[in-house]
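Before surveying the methods themselves, let us examine one representative protein, pairing a chain with its fold in C-alpha cell form.
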Amino acid sequence: MARYRDAHVGGCLEAEVQLRADGSTVLRSTDALRWYPERLTDCLEQWAAEAPGRSFVARRAQGGDWHHVGYAQMLQQVQAVGQALLDAGLSQERPLAILSGNDVEHLTLALAAMWAGVPYIPISPAYALVSQDFGKLRYILSITEPGMVFASGPEYARAIAAVVPAEVPVVLTEGRLEGRAVRAFADLAATRPGAALAEAHAKVGADTVVKLLFTSGSTREPKGVITTHRMLCSNQQMIRQCLAFLADEPPVLLDWLPWNHVFGGSHNVGIVLYNGGTLYLDDGKPTPAGMAETLRNLREISPTIYFNVPKGFEEIASAMDSDTRLRDTLFARCKALMYAGAGLSQAVWDKLDTHAEASIGERIRIVTSLGMTETAPSSTYAVGTAVAAGHVGLPNPGVEVKLVPEADGGKIEVRFRGPNVMPGYWRLPEVSAAAFDEEGFYRTGDAVRWVDATDPQRGLLFDGRIAEDFKLASGTFVSVGPLRARIVVAGHPCVQDAVITGLNRNEVGALLIPRADELRRHLGAAADTPLPGLLQSAPARAFFQALADRLWRDASGSASRVARLHVLAEPPSIDKGEITDKGSINQRAVLTHRAALVEALYEGAAADPFVILPRA
C-alpha cells in the first residue's frame, strides 16, 4: 500500500446525506464552520502586529534576487495608497480598475482598495494586450464606470487610448502615455494616511463589496461577480478546515495563477494572507516560453503547498524526469499539490506520485476542489489518499450542496448555498435572480455523479457542463465533458481541446484544437512552420488518423463514438469569445462562429483536407 506524507486534513471527509421526496439530495459537512474575521484586511493587520518582519510577498528583481515585502511594510503601503484612492474620489460607486499581471503594485492596490472600502476590478491583461477590438475591456469599463485605472506599464497604451475616457485618471507603475497625463504609483504610495481613511475603513464590513471578478466563458459578454469580505473570509476558513496543515506553519506558495481569476486572486492569495504565509510571485506560466522561469523558481523555492493547472503539472512532471534538483526542491516540504481549471489526467497524476516516491520515499497528496467565481471559489474538497482524477469530494464546512436530477433523467446538477456564495452579478438583476433556485441555492450548471452510489462518503465526480450536452437524432444523449476529456487524453500532447458536434445528427463529430507548438515538436517540424501546411503534411495526417481510429475503436456506443474529426487550422478567437483569457474553449461560441465548418464536416468531409475519418 502506498505511503503518503503526513498532512493534517479534515473538514470535508464526511457528510450528512438528506434524501428528499422531490428526488433531490442535500449534503452537509459533519464539521461545523468555525469563526472567521469580518474583513480580509483584518488578517493583514493581525500579521503586521504578530509577525511584522515576516515576508508577505516576494518577486524577482531584474538582477535575479528576490525582493521581499514584509507584513508591516505592506500594511503601511496599503494605508498610504488607500488614502490616495479616497483623495481621488473613489468609492463604492467609482471603483478601481486594474490592468496588470501579478506584481507587488497590483497586490498593494487591491489591499488598499479593500482597506478603504473601494471595490476593485482585476481585468484580464489579455483583453488589452491580445484582443484586437477591446470589446470585453470596453464592456467591463462601461458597466463598472471606474474612477481610476491602474496599468503596470505603457504596453497598455493602445487599449487605454481606445476605451478609457479622457477624464478618468490613469496610474502607471512606470513609463508614460503619449498625449495623456498619468500619475506614478510611487506618488500614491507617498500619501500620508489621515482621518478620512480611518473613517472609511471603520465602515467596511462583511457585506462590503471587495471586488468584481468578471467571468470569461459561457456568454458573449462577461458577468461581474460581486465578491464580498464575507465570501472571502468564510471560504478561507473552510479551506483551513479542509487543509488543516495550513494552520500548522505559515504556508509558502510559489504561484503564477492570474489574479483576475478566482483561483489565483481569491483562493491562493487568500490562503497566504489568512494564514500569515509568504507568496513568491512566479513570472512564468505553463507555455513553451514561460515554463523555463517556473522551473527556475521551483529549483530555488520549496513550497509547502503547490498549485497549478493540469498543463503546468504535466510540464513539471516531464521536467523532473531529468532534473533531480527540481524534483527534490519541490517535494522537500510540500504537504499537498492542487490542480484546478480542468481535469488532471491519471497518467500525469501517476507520474507525480512516482517522482515523489523517488525523492522522499512517499507520495504527496494531490487534492482538488469544485468551485467557481460565484462561490469565492471552493465549495467542495477532495483531500483523501484515495482521491483519483475527476473526484471533487464532499462539501466544505458551512456549504450546503444540493444535487438535482434533470427532469428527463439525464445528469445531476450540483447547486451551492452558503456564506461563500455571491449575492449576485453587478448591475444584472434579472440574470442574478435566475442564477438561484427557489431555496436560494446557486445553480452552477455543472453536473456531478457519485464515485460509488452505494457509498456516498466516497464523494462526487465531476460530470461536465449540463448546457454542453445534446442529443443525437436517435435521441441518445451525448455527455460532452467526459468525451472531450477522453479525446484530449488520447491526443496527448498535440490536442488542446475538442468541440463536440452532432446535435440532431446521426453521428458524433469533433473539431480538434491542436497545440501548434507541441505538434511541431512532436513531428520534428521547424518552429516557424505555418499551422495549415503542417496539418496537411503526411506525418500530421498520420498522427490524427491514428487518433481517429483509436477513438472509434475504443468507443462503447454511439454517444462516445467519434465518427469524424476536423483539425482547426485557424486558432480560436478571444474577440469572438471562442477562447477565454485562461485558454478555456467556449463550445457554444466555436459552434456558432464555425457553423459552416460543422456543416462541411458532415456534408463535404471527403473533400476537406483538414477532415479525418476513422478507418472502421
About this structure: The chain has a mean pLDDT of 93. DSSP finds 21 helices and 28 strands in the chain.
